[in-house]
Design a protein that fits this description.
The chain has 114 residues and is of the alpha+beta class. 21% of the residues lie in helices and 22% in strands. It has one domain: HIT-like (HIT family, subunit A). It has a 5-stranded antiparallel beta sheet with strand order 1-2-3-5-4, with helices on one face. It binds adenosine monophosphate.
């Protein structure tokens, strides 16, 4: 069965798309944990980071580069946090790999929660 993010990529479910290319899509999180909260989602449906394989190396790098590009586009390149939740124990709820990019609030506290 298609994941929620596959349905968003296919435009079966609406989303606020801020960036898209051949390999990934970036959407606004529906339940933002910061003034800027977007999800960087590969079009390839890898369930979680621990499932990624050597052949995904370029794709994973592309997601990181996209984070920087989108951060610049949104004007938050001087201060943002990237998070990957992996598996239920890591707080993952949608089992299609994605990076959370959060910005626009104070991240100086020594905690890593989004
Ligand atoms: P995670 O808990 O790391 O799997 O993150 C899943 C994220 O997807 C959560 O931050 C949700 O708020 C977000 N989310 C769930 N449904 C949607 C949706 N339809 N559009 C945008 N973001 C969503």
């Amino acid at each position: 069965m298609a994941t929620l993010f596959e349905k968003i990529i296919a435009r079966d479910i609406p989303a606020d798309v801020v960036f898209e290319d051949d390999h990934c899509i970036v959407i606004k999180d529906i339940n933002p944990a910061a003034p800027v909260h977007v999800l960087i989602i590969p079009k390839k449906p890898i369930p979680k980071l621990a499932d990624a394989e050597t052949e995904d190396q370029a794709l994973l790098g592309h997601l990181m580069l996209t984070a920087g590009e989108v951060a610049r586009q949104l004007g938050v390149e001087e201060g943002f946090r990237l998070i990957v939740n992996n598996g239920e124990g890591g707080g993952q709820t949608v089992f299609h790999l994605h990076l959370h990019l959060l910005a626009g609030r104070d991240f100086t506290e020594a905690q890593l929660a989004p």
